[in-house]
Amino acid sequence: SAFSSVAHICRDINYGWMIRNIHANGASVFFICLYMHIGRGIYYGSFMFKETWNIGIILLLLVMATAFVGYV
């Protein structure tokens, strides 16, 4: 099962616990960067370029869907 695989990596693999934590924190930092990028776009008025903004929103939704599927 998935839980036993994660437990094996964290307990039995050298620095497995660190790899797991780096992976989890890296994913969180990635989303923080995404939200900061969107905030910058709102601040500078980049949403006025509709095509670019819509592509960015579609990419955001795809990344969120990928993260959800990877979490579930």
Automatic annotation (TrEMBL):
It is a multi-pass membrane protein. The keyword Ribonucleoprotein does not apply. Residues 1-72 form the Cytochrome b/b6 N-terminal region profile domain. The chain crosses the membrane at residues 22-40, 52-71. GO terms for biological process: mitochondrial electron transport, ubiquinol to cytochrome c. GO terms for cellular component: mitochondrial inner membrane. Keywords: Electron transport, Heme, Iron, Membrane, Metal-binding, Mitochondrion, Mitochondrion inner membrane, Respiratory chain, Transmembrane, Transmembrane helix, Transport, Ubiquinone. Gene3D superfamilies: Cytochrome Bc1 Complex, Chain C. InterPro entries: Cyt_b/b6_N, Cytb/b6-like_sf, Di-haem_cyt_TM. One of its GO terms (molecular function) is oxidoreductase activity. PROSITE patterns: CYTB_NTER. It is found in: Mitochondrion inner membrane. The keyword Metal-binding applies. Component of the ubiquinol-cytochrome c reductase complex (complex III or cytochrome b-c1 complex) that is part of the mitochondrial respiratory chain. The b-c1 complex mediates electron transfer from ubiquinol to cytochrome c. Contributes to the generation of a proton gradient across the mitochondrial membrane that is then used for ATP synthesis. This is Cytochrome b. It comes from Bolitoglossa rostrata (longnose mushroomtongue salamander).
